[in-house]
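Q: For a teaching session next week I want to show students how multiple molecules come together into a single three-dimensional assembly. I've collected the sequence lines for a complex. Could you give me the predicted structure tokens for the whole thing so I can convert them for display?
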Amino acid sequence: MSEPEPDDDGARRARAPLPAWWGRAAGVGLLALAAVLAAMSGGSFLSFVLGMAGLALAAFGASATPVVEGELAPPEPSPAEGGGEDERTTKARLALATLGGGSLALGLGWVGVTALSEERAAIAWAPVVAGAALLVAAAVWEASRALAPVALRALGPSGPTAQGLVALGVAAALAVQIVVPATYYLGDDPFDERFAWRMFSAVRVYRCELSALDFDGGSGTPVRLDATIHAGWITTMRRGRESVIRRYLRWRCEAAAVTGARVTNRCTTPEGERVPDVVREIDCASGALRAMEIE
Amino acid sequence: MKEALDALSRRALAVPVAAVRPYLLLKLTLVLLAVDMWLTRASHAGRYGAGGFNVAHWAWLDAAQPPIEPAYYVGACVLTSALCLAIAFADRPPRWLLALACLVHTWSWAMSMLDSYQHHYLLSIVLAAMVFFPPLRADEALRASEAPAAAPAAKPAKRKKRKKPAPDAPPPRASGHPFVRAWSYTLLCASIAIVYAYTAFSKADPEWLAGAALRQVMQYPADGVVPGPGANVAIRTFHGIIEGLGEHGALFWFVMGHSVVVVQIVVCAGYLLAPWRDAARSRVTQAFFFVALGTALSFHVGAELMGLEIGWFSYYMVGYALIAMLPGGLLVRVARAMFWLVLDLRRERDALPPWAPLALAGVAALALVSAGWTADLPGAREASVLAAVLLGAGVVAALLRAGDARAITGYAVGALLAALGFALCVQLSELRWDYWRNVGGDHRRRGEVEQAYAAYVKANRYAPDGQDRRRQEDEMRAILEQRGLLPRRGGR
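A: Of course. Below is the structure for the complete assembly, covering every listed component.
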């Protein structure tokens, strides 16, 4: 990326190439321009998009990444050269696969038995998952032990620094992708399913009725939500999205002449069982939010 | 440590994969996303910022972004599409341009929690990984260079000596197509595997396993097995099966609930193994890829048949499964058939006179601005002008870098197609009708009669036969006439 590149035909032109930093410098310039525009106009589509373009340019520069022209990947060392696996390793891999297969079979059998007896079988999935993971590990081990020579168009990272950075980057990216959904499953808000990969979950198919009240000193006045906010937000609040409900309550304090506001969500499960009403309210004077569950 | 890092890099992170896989994944994602933005997303723009209320996906974004309005959402959709198509047709797009497409697309869903479709979030992850894909032209991805082809010539003779392949024999080299070492491809496959893993985990919820949630998703009432009024042919087929089971009908839901979990685990394992698709030699592993592919296809095609409201998620996932799990040789043959025109035209490009790319870029910029100007959607003009300016900046950069604008040809072709595609979508689809009738309905509910009237007038201009909103338009007009804000009809 740092070297001046030939044009995309591979033919170098007589013109002196631009320095490698010009793209990043242009990116920083765009970022500054976006900041100035945002400061002058309070932010707009143009300033936001310019800011994003500046960020992308500053991060990656403007140069095109070169491609490797038909390089042959060096063959992996053969077993005779000491690069293959010995009998013990083969046995270990087979043992891993056998253990995985056994665990999978055991788990599936368990799930089947609980299915026939119509019991809930959540724990029976543990050996299924463990077995599948062991089998995948054995298959990856098998596939990666000696790779064939191939014609390459792009090489992987070379050198310990680049390899280390890539390994760290990939590990960090995967860790984030594992941790973000995990916070949902380990947290105490079952309704905010946004990043949990929980499509068509049991929570989402709850049937809920949403009602809202405004308070101006005395008793509450019912709010016609569909005449106040877009129907899309009503659906989101009906699904119990905490951050939207909180924002709505704060917004009522700012947008309407009220001393407090309340939202009540009354839900039933897909099987028709009623769950406790969830009530959230705000006191506009102090800004304090309160959540209650009422049986 | 050095050796361990090298082994990790060469055997796990940057395993050689057929170059056609990342190449097709990139093209498929960009083209599908461009059309997805026009056809399924832009029409929802009217709800953004309606009534002055909005919540972004993150509090910091609420603080950083300007107050959201429909024009911003339409603008983000149009700009993402133009960027995606320009990049899809470019020879070797620079990483920053892909990063920009990823950022604008991410902003399109993150600007408001009104868009909580999880596959929009997944597409941001996919685009982010693709920023680091090796940038390849069609000929580089689909045709092996001639120089190294003779290198592994000794292998067939080696194989003849043995009756069956020895466990340590290297796999036969896939001939005739190139490979890449791309850690970003491994990252992408692992990311998709994580999605399926969590989906499996979430479906291990007792209500899913018992089938109650699935029954609700498929519009079956909780107390019976009769399909609801919206049930389609797939659900009616299930109904037939359940009726055939008689008193064991409840077992059907139980088995269905459990089988969904197995399906997710199998597909997850398929994606975890996918980076080794071209390296695996075990026949069991090779066969498993077909099992995982069949499972993924049956799941996503089934979801479409059941009419689940998941946007274009199934199309993306069907494409990804095919590209990640079909044999590399087959993919290359299919891709060569699909891209023959590109491969042929690429050769002709060098014969173009120097003014031709400049003229093409000029036409594309003009087409972009015209498409945005005539769309009659807020924000489309600004976004199309911005896309045209970006194309112009690309021409200037190409001239500065190489003294020749030929490198801009692919971007110009993509931008021209983006302009034509957007214009066609606007003219032929119900995008404008959906947008303006929804805006009209929302203003009407909130008692904003003037805005509702203006929106209904536009909606009726684009209304399909028999679905117009004349009654609502007349109703709003009557109120405005009463208030003296509009002259009475015929009362001049």
